Amino acid sequence: MKLELKGITKRFGSLVANDHIDLVVEPGQVHCLLGENGAGKSTLMNVLYGLYDPSDGEILVNGKPVVFKGPGDAMAAGIGMVHQHFMLIAVFTVAENVALGNEATKAAGFLNLDETRRKIQAISEQYGFDVDPDAMVEDLPVGVQQRVEIIKALVRDAEVLILDEPTAVLTPQETDELLAIIRQLKADGKSIVFISHKLREVKEISDTITVIRRGKVVGSADPSASPTELASAMVGRSVSLTLEKKPAEPGDATFKVRDLVVVDQNGQHVVDGLSFDISQGEVLAIAGVQGNGQTELTEAVLGVQPHVTGSITLDGVELLGKSVKQVLSAGVGFVPEDRKVDGLVGTFSISENMVLDLYDKAPFAKGIGMKPAQIASHAEQKVEEFDVRTPSINAAVGTLSGGNQQKVVLARELSRPLRLFIASQPTRGLDVGSIEFVHKRVIAERDNGTPVMIVSTELDEVLELADRIAVLYRGKLVGIVPAGTSRDVLGLMMAGVPEHEAELTAQKTHEGGTHA
């Protein structure tokens, strides 16, 4: 099936998310849409899938114009979509999820799940999915849940499959398995639209690459192009993809976590007996697939988790039981994973956001009064130092791009002497140019002698920044390994395999591949 987009434009008020985009997806082709978060890739695919009406332009299937009033029309035309955040009901079985919205019935209107099970088994055998139709979705690993989403599309006879950031929540091994599945689908004549900003995967799987920047197609690229060339195409300027840093020179272990347990509202141990240290002048990266206790760990340190036991000490002082303000006053800098919800007040100005945790202290306050001139001067200095792109320090921080919002958070947290720096998903949603800047600042803080804890689901980022890597799985510490540990070992550990067993498995896999 040949798919064409001609002049697709999508406006949200004055914002033009897609600007006259042309795109052709040939039968049996893996066509990659490459661009940073916010470039307009997902919006374009939501238009294609019938979730948004285009403001201008048209969609053609096999040369004929079509109008999709909803996802049902797109599916009927042979287009399936696997969203970045899966659309599955956790308490349903695989068969029930696949049948949902496409229910086969028996006489008298009863649901015919037997037919759905048969289709799931047939597709699983054809593509080697190994999915049990009667398994509960909530019991399945993330990689298998994604296969269920693909099965949902194939059961509906999809000829074009849209995969939106499909590897964002996968371990490296699950990513390799997904890429193998994509190759099988391609060999079977299916077309794949692969949306990503991960250069390694784009180069490995794509037949052709379309680069989108700020809502426009800025060109195409060959998969043989270097990562640097692809990154430059995404951002519009040359960038360095390699972080230059000297080896760490760790000092005393001044941050210590002992037997930390965090219990959620359902009584589950989301952090389960964690113990580790971070020394002055080193970066400990917390690796793991999203949802394995990383968020709760950082929130426990900050003092916002209500049900916590164990011990968290900084410079010998117990932090557990202290308020957020007391923790910050102890010298903790904190970059939250969701800057819009937890890091900034969107309606406040940039200058106000720069002093959210310092507004009542000198030199920004005297007695009960604030000193606007000092706050403004501070903001002007930090905007220049951190290269925040804004027309004015008085602009509402919510009007800035994601990258510039993150720079405001970093500028605030790094503008005072720190005893500990924690950054959770520090580059989520940032372009490669902003990532380059953030990484340099993190290492500069390390080199200043500060213990640094980075939490990231991006394995490339973990390997780039870490001096040591702690891997979490279901709230437990699988192990702490050196920065030079291979991606294969880390991937297995992220799936819960103990360190020694992961090393043996990775070694056998490598030897098997070498001998083959």
UniProtKB/TrEMBL annotation:
Topological category with respect to the lipid bilayer: Peripheral membrane protein
Residue ranges occupied by any ABC transporter domain in the UniProt entry: 3-239, 255-499
Gene Ontology CC annotation, any one: plasma membrane
Entry annotated with the keyword Acetylation: no
Keywords assigned by UniProt, alphabetized: ATP-binding, Cell membrane, Membrane, Nucleotide-binding, Repeat, Translocase, Transport
Primary location recorded for the protein, binned into one broad class: membrane
Organism encoding this protein: Arthrobacter terricola
CDD domains: ABC_Carb_Monos_I, ABC_Carb_Monos_II
Pfam family, one: ABC_tran
Name of the featured protein: ABC transporter ATP-binding protein
